[in-house]
Amino acid sequence: MGAISLIALIIAAVLFSAGGILLGKILVKKSYNPQKGQAYECGIPTQTSPWQQFHVGYYLFALLFLIFDVELVFMYPWAVVVKKTGMVALFEILVFIFILFMGFLYAHKKGALKWS
Amino acid sequence: MYSQTEIIKDTSDTEGELVINVGPQHPATHGVLHLVITLDGETIKKIEPHLGYIHRSIEKMCESLSYRQFIYVTSRMDYLSSHINNLGCAHNVEKSMQIEVPQRAKVIRVLMSELTRIASHELWLGAMAMDLGAFTPFFYAFREREMITEIMEDTCGARLTMNYIVPGGLMYDLHPDFQQKVKAFVKQFKHKVTEYEDLVTNNVIFQNRMKGVGVLSKEDAISYGCTGPVGRGSGVHCDIRKIFPYEVYDTVEFDEVLETAGDSFARYMVRVREMNQSIRIIEQLIDNIPEGDFQAKTKAVLKPPKGEFYTRVETARGEFGVYIVSEGGTTPYRIKFRSPGFSNLSALEHMAKGSKIGDLMATMGTLDLVIPDIDR
Amino acid sequence: MANEEIKEYISSIQPTATFDETGEWLNILTEPSSWKSFAKELRHSKFDFDYLFCLTCIDWKTHLTMVYHLSSTTYRNTIVVKANLDRASPEIETVSDIWRTAEFHEREVFELFGVVFINHPDLRKLILTDDFEGYPLRKDFEDPINMIKL
Amino acid sequence: MFSLESITNSIQNWLYNTFQPWFALTLECVIVIALVTGLFAVLGLVLVLMERKVAAHIQIRLGPNRVGPGGMFQTVADTLKLLMKEGLTPDLADKFLFNLAPFIVMIVAMLLLAPIAFAKGFQVWDINIGVLYVSAISSLSVIGILMAGWASNNKYSLLGAMRSGAQIVSYELSAGLSVLTIVILTGSLQLSDIIASQENGWWLFKGHIPVIISFVIFLIAVTAETNRAPFDLAEAESELTAGFHTEYSGMQFALFFFGRIYQHIYCVCHRRHFIFRRMDAIAYWALGRI
User: Fold this and answer.
1) Which one of B72, B343, B373 makes the best mutation probe of the C interface by having the most chain C beta carbons within 10 Å?
2) In chain B, what residues touch A52 (CB-CB under 8 Å)?
3) CATH 3.40.50.2300 fits C3-118, yes or no
4) What is the pLDDT of residues B236-252, one digit of tens each?
5) Domains and CATH numbers, chain A
6) pLDDT confidence of D256, banded at 50, 70, 90?
7) Chain B residue numbers touching D55 (CB-CB < 8 A)
8) Angstroms from A86 CA to nearest CA on chain D
9) For residues D32 and D19, what is the distance between their CA atoms, to the nearest angstrom?
10) Of B85, B326, B364, D205, which one's alpha carbon is 20 to 30 angstroms from that of B28?
């Protein structure tokens, strides 16, 4: 089967999940009180909203990750042909990695990996 | 009951700070300790313990109980070393009344204390390992603990709150199987303690999570009044059994376990090695229980003279002090229990500040807090 | 005897203090007003009282008595310092900056006896609910519902 | 290699000869849906039981032994129990995202199934960039987790979700790079090719040292990506109570649970693709979780 199978799988997943949840909804008798609707925090009403801004350090890490993840994607096609191409391919990828590594060193030196 | 939305509006000015409640219903607090933690990301900025969920005011209760009765209330304080609590209180009465305890009772008291200490440390080992995410050590530790609780049940009819001690000796004599059962336990335990070491001590994940976490320096440990394994993990020489020997501790050979690092791993090591020392004491005494009375002859109603009396014993958690002010009546005028957990808890904020929330669990686990002991 | 030495030393820095040696340890009665400076002296003296192992209060119906059990981890001398407080408005300086364990013990005494510790960093209720009235460990405290009386 | 090619081919031929092409395709889809759902239901139930039994043996206890022979239906009973539980949504939660998250997790788990070669010719989609597809889809599950954690309006959930995100960031690269070794050796991104190349022996045992290193790295990184102990920081029972799914109950919780397990199965299947060749991967999976 071709790409159509993905749609089939998504339908399967939705059916599986929705089926379970719906079945639960049908079988369960609902009840409600305000305490039940509260978020769980060890039995104490929540103080301060959890929906807050996050530390900027977090995004720096994510950005760095993104760079290297994209690098990885570049390396997959290379990995397929490296055996046929031989030493040239190896040399080229070393150059590629070297450049990225310098970038990484720069980021490291700039303190992007330090949580402060 | 106020709604959540209100609270969130109230504290909208504390941007970037996450206030999170750990407890009273939390898997890691082992009881109803309530910590309000202020976080920046995952870094702890402030810890505020809220106590009193199971405060029973035992001190007030004891003021209306007689000198024979109040001892049994103390079993409910540090329920994991209830026998040693009883011992501390009985000591106080014996000291004030100048009762001479028979040698047999003394040896049995020490034996039971050491068994209690091992049982308490076993439970701590299992619970602490669970705090750090490992489930298996819990079952291993409880397998041996079960043997001890069975011995306790044979001896005094209870598994947790023993109430085996009366002023002047013991409630009853030993069970005939006692020696044999304790020997069987010692034999198995010696074999199994290496198993814990393999499972926990030598585990790289454990070591990484505990080394350098929750460091308490020697000066701070003294200043915060930390005793027991917490103090000894920081290098404070604070074992009451060595400093102020009571019962027969001055006649048996054992080492005071001291570590100097002051981190969670040091406290962990102190407890594990202490179990071995307890076994050493038990081995020395189990074949040498002298014959004789198990109880001194005392009056039916105890009336200590007017004055103030302070005694201390080493429980599994540290120095347990009993301070009684007597007016010469049948009930104490004022009782103060100096519980080790209360002082150890006060050091928690100092130890955990600036560390990650995951490290807090390691720190709290190695403090070995028992909540009724803190709340009283 | 070390007790004599300690007595001598204390008399030199705190002339108003009175001694009582009937108990196990040396008892020293001091004025609440001079307690803080006295405590500082004790902590940094040559006897090095670095370990406050018990801090409590006793209600004598006419007055309150603060009791501090001090010890030294190097010399093992133990002394008991007491200070009598006025029952109507008990106030004493905190020692939580000298012995940090006092912070929690003082909070406990504050809510159970109502003693106010001046300059305490965080004097709030620790055990009881915020709206609790009365001081449970005082002798005149009555709670008809929860109290056990024999 | 175990082959089911003749069976699948004959079914397909029969379908296309008997019906219109569009109808045959639809029927094919229906068959796939039925098979996949059936597989999920059975695997989830069996594997959970297996894990619990093995864990129980390690922890010197018996494990489930009451429901059915040898506790075989324990998971069925657990699922029924969860079915009977009310699925709660907290009042202040983002209701849409909160309810969407389990679906995302499940969809990701299902999609990952597409390129797995159960046997020769028994594969949903023999995609020629299989390895790339797998690494792309498997990183998506973190979106479901982040969504769940954020939408719950609960701090434990939020911290758990953020940790999960951080974990993906930390281990995704190593997992991707370690797979590269096998791609180089095989010279293809197609999973069926990778398996075919190991017809006469696993790469792991052919004496390539880089393969052994990458195997170890892959093992660790994938365990971390699926948030299993000792990398279960996102759930961290003792710190964050249940991490990102603290607020979930009933069937929604069950879906998270199953989603996680399927992802796991699939990581193992991929370990099998990359390193192993046979179905003992499943037994290996059970061992890998303890």
Assistant:
1) B343
2) 15-16, 18
3) no
4) 888 888 888 888 888 88
5) 3-110 (1.20.58)
6) low
7) 135
8) 11
9) 17
10) B85
**Which pTM does this prediction carry?**
0.82
Residue of B nearest to A44 (CA): B21
User: Which residues, numbered 36 to 65 in chain A, qualify as contacts with chain B under a Cβ-Cβ cut-off of 8 Å?
Assistant: 38-39, 41-50, 52-55, 57-58
Cα torsion through C35, C37, C43, C44, rounded to 10: -160
CB contact under 8 A, A39 and D152: yes
pLDDT at residue C92 in the model: 87
User: Which region, left, alpha or beta, applies to residue D217 given φ > 0 means left and ψ of -120 to 50 means alpha?
Assistant: alpha
| Per-residue model confidence as pLDDT tens digits over B194-218 | 888 888 888 888 888 888 888 888 8
Q: Which of B19, B33, B35, B39 should one mutate to test binding to chain A, selecting the residue with the greatest count of A CBs within 10 A?
A: B19
Domains in chain C: boundaries: 3-118
SS3 C72: coil
Whether residue B18 and residue D233 make contact (CB cut-off 8 A), yes or no, is no
Contacts of B5 in chain D (CB under 8 A): 92
Say yes or no: D41 and D113 in one domain. Answer: no
Say yes or no: D244 and D106 in one domain.
Answer: yes
| Mutation for B interface: D52, D231, D238, most B CBs within 10 A | D238
* Structural domains in chain B, sorted by start: 57-375 (1.10.645.10)
pLDDT score recorded for residue A16 = 78
pLDDT of residue B158 exceeding 80, the answer is yes
Q: Which residues of C59-97 are buried (b: 16+ CB within 10 A; e: fewer)?
A: beeeebbbbbbbbbbeeebbbbbbbbbebeebebbbbbb
Whole-number pLDDT of residue B62 = 85
- Please state at what angle helix D95-111 crosses helix A4-27, rounded to 10 degrees: 130
Alpha-carbon gap, residue D195 to D189, rounded angstroms: 11
Q: Among the listed ranges B94-98, B305-309, C41-45, D137-141, which one has the minimum average pLDDT value?
A: D137-141
